[in-house]
Amino acid sequence: MTVTTVAELPHERGGSYLTDGTTLASWLLTRDHKRIAILYTLTITAFFFIGGAAAAVIRLNLLTPEGTLVDAETYNRIFTLHGVVMVWLFLVPSIPTTFGNFLIPLMLGAKDLAFPRLNLLSWYLFVASGLIVLAGLIGGSVDTGWTFYEPLSSGYASGALVVVLLGIFVNGFSSILTGLNFVVSIHRLRAPGLTWYRLPIFCWSNYATAVIMMLATPVLAVTLMLVAVEHLWGVGVFDPTHGGDPLLFQHMFWFYSHPAVYIMILPGMGVISEIVPAFARKRLFGYHFVAWSSVAIAVVGFLVWGHHMFVAGESVYAALVFSFLSFIVAVPSAIKVFNWLATLHKGAISFEAPMLYALGFILLFTIGGLTGLFVATLAFDVHATATYFVVAHFHYIMVGGMVSAYFAALHFWWPKATGRLYPESWARFAAILIFFGFNLTFFPQFILGYLGMPRRYHAYPPEFQVWNVLSSAGASVLAAAYLLPLFYLGWSLWRGARAPANPWGATGLEWQTPSPPPSGNFARTPRISRPPYDYPEPAA
Amino acid sequence: MSDRVLEKQFADLAHQSETAELGMWGFIATEVLFLGGLFVAYSFYRYLHPAGVAAAASHTRLVIGSVNTAVLLTSSFLMSWASLAASNGEGRRAARLIWGAAGLGLVFLALKGLEYAEEIGERLWPGAAFSLDTPEPRVGEVFYFLYWVMTGIHALHLLIGVAALAAIGWRAHGGVYSRAYHSPVRVVSLYWHFVDIVWIFLFALIYLPGRSA
């Protein structure tokens, strides 16, 4: 996007959003979307390492078949903590609340989101929800897994369950309000000339994500509320001992939680769609297809929840339809992958750290997506249900995909957000280490699952040990690789070279502002007259 | 006036007002899904146990429910009128109408409270002490479980609405709204009508099963 007015911006030395107010109150009461993004980044980083610590205990325990580190009860509590924290306190908010908050107004050519106060409220709700959830998980003994299946959760779990459910309920409203803010902003705050087809794909994919947040999250909130009330009153909507139906719970839970899987991948796809053209120096191939495939994923994603219930007792006809629709939802994802590959074709590719993460994303997401087709197949799913095959499949999407995309974004926009350049060699080393650590951790789990090892047990038969040891070894590599950026990115905040406005020579509107951007983003509202990803066509 | 209320991310007041209204429509969409979960659970049980639900529903207080429906519809009418008055710049009249709507909201809550008190007296509060003289008391208990949750959530929405109406009524009285700037009245009014419509569905689902010939 070439912007005529922004080039004339008076250069605001020292007038960035980071230096506009240095008191604690200026941060905690800010309405600036960029500062709120920073608040979110710090918060979810803390939650990421808490969830990661739980994963470390799981992998350590599974080094030996007897599971010597923790007993069965503690193990159940640990994987519950891992799942709940990673899903609701890291993956769901990860890219939307940080890069979405920071970048969407910049990409729209706007001065802020539509509802800045609501945006700050979302953060406070998020922090409150995180504290409530952790209090319940650590203080109480909730061992239901992140899915809170009935009748386990209302019949057998302890009273702390209600605390955890309350936390996730509050968390849902944080998510809903963020989604609402994004949808309204993208509709109403686009700069003059910025038509829908001139929007960066990052905006399209966050728009699709935001719609899911708005329409799926309320169903989760009300479902978990019913579980809590039923637990308190001892009356069953879901609990069969009180005349309820546990299958109804699964339908309502997955009506949110399957679309939530797309909340946890669509923003990552948006990031990759920004980074691949920037480092291939080419226009994004098939822009319209990539844009609409996000919307297609969001829409079809609402119609596939039943594939989590193939063995739960839904009718065979329902299972057939859900299986078919699950194959359909893979099509728009595949469209994206092919378009990224076509963008790379004959591009002038360079391999800076964001691009390494992006390429890692494409490969790992593809493996995760293809194994998704395995488990969408009825006959295979009966064999794979509740085994490590499923665990490996969704970790390839969520960790291999989304976390890689998060790190890609973190490096790509680090100079813009902080005004500092990070050390490139360290970053490349970490990116490569994450890729290998990830595969070593999770590929053996496909094999374990295929061989029949069930998930959520603290011990296992000795013949599975070799694959478990490989997986745990990979996890230790992954842990080191995740800790590395904490050090070199932290170092760059003090010692990194000052970043120019556009260190990558990228085309987005956000790169036309100084690094870091001033509080109001744009001195004058930009006018947009060019398509996105306006890189010069390579010589034939 | 305009300079004080216009936020920096909007081009002008019209832009800001339309955006605020779109925000409320979006919020209402999320509310439809939130309450939709409850309606699904309700429909599921009514489909499974039509006779049990009808028998339990016959213990609800049709007169209070009907009067309350009339009260809320009247309050919505006043709120529409208030919106019109505010957009014509008639702040004082808008304030009186808004307070009238809020007052009817309080009447609804008072009647609902009376109904709740009678029902607790009849041991229709789910839990160990629950008792219901129908052929399927367990189904009745699930029905009353959903009854308390659904009407409770509705009452909470109404309470929030009354507080919002009181606040914008106060501001209308103080002459804050004009022909150019009155979007808060329209936005709160949308919310108020939504809460009203939800009640119409609840009325039909809670009070009417088994009562038609």
Query: What share of residues are in beta strands of chain B?
Result: under 5%
Total individual domains of chain A: 1
Pair with the most extensive interface?
A-B, 41 and 37 residues
Task: Tell the overall outline of chain A.
Answer: globular
The proportion of residues forming helix of chain B, as a percent range, comes to over 70%
Give Rg of chain A in angstroms: 23 Å
CATH architecture of chain A: Up-down Bundle
Q: Indicate the percent of residues in helices of chain A.
A: 55-70%
How is the secondary structure organized here?
The complex is a heterodimer of chains A (540) and B (213).
Chain A: H1 24-28, H2 33-61, H3 72-91, H4 94-108, H5 116-139, H6 152-156, H7 160-188, H8 201-233, H9 246-263, H10 266-280, H11 287-300, H12 316-344, H13 353-376, H14 378-384, H15 388-418, H16 424-451, H17 465-495
Chain B: H1 2-5, H2 13-48, H3 50-57, H4 62-87, H5 91-121, H6 137-173, H7 183-207
Helix pairs in contact in B: 2-3, 2-6, 2-7, 3-6, 4-5, 4-7, 5-6, 6-7
